[in-house]
Structure prediction request, 174 residues.
Amino acid sequence: VGTIFIAAEEDFAASVLKALRDNKIRNPVVGTSILATRAFQTALGSDGETIANYTNGIVASTPLLFDTANEEAQDFNSRYQNKFGASSDWVSAYAFDAVHLVVEGFKSATREKNEDVVQGGRRIIRERLAAALDPETGIRGITGVKTFTKEGEAKSPVFMGRYDGRDMVSALTQ
Prediction:
């Protein structure tokens, strides 16, 4: 029998993986970026050894791998570990960057006279993000330079990570 692909939300994905491993089914498991989140690990259990027993060897897509990330991401991860006692994941790094995008949107723009605060704020952010079309005009964050398509879709990399115990590291083949 071949590889098992899991594409589900954290809790259901964890229950599927637990059922597989508890029933001694050792097929390789591949999944979406959901499997590379702290929420997925939390759904598997509370102690590191239990989590590692379930996750070891799983391959998952993810937009960020800390073992190959830039210095800013490493610093963020260290600060996160110091504050919360555990490594961060791509979700927390992307949430941090999302707030950074909003702040950067406001830095170089002003509202027009008599423009509503909310409407003006939305316009300013929308215009800044719409201008971030390539690395030169993009907005640098801890996860890299954020750029968008003309349709407004974020351009994010996709990496493949492999769990080494409970730690997600770069898969040998990208």
In short: The first strand starts at residue 4 and ends at 6. The first helix runs from residue 10 to 22.
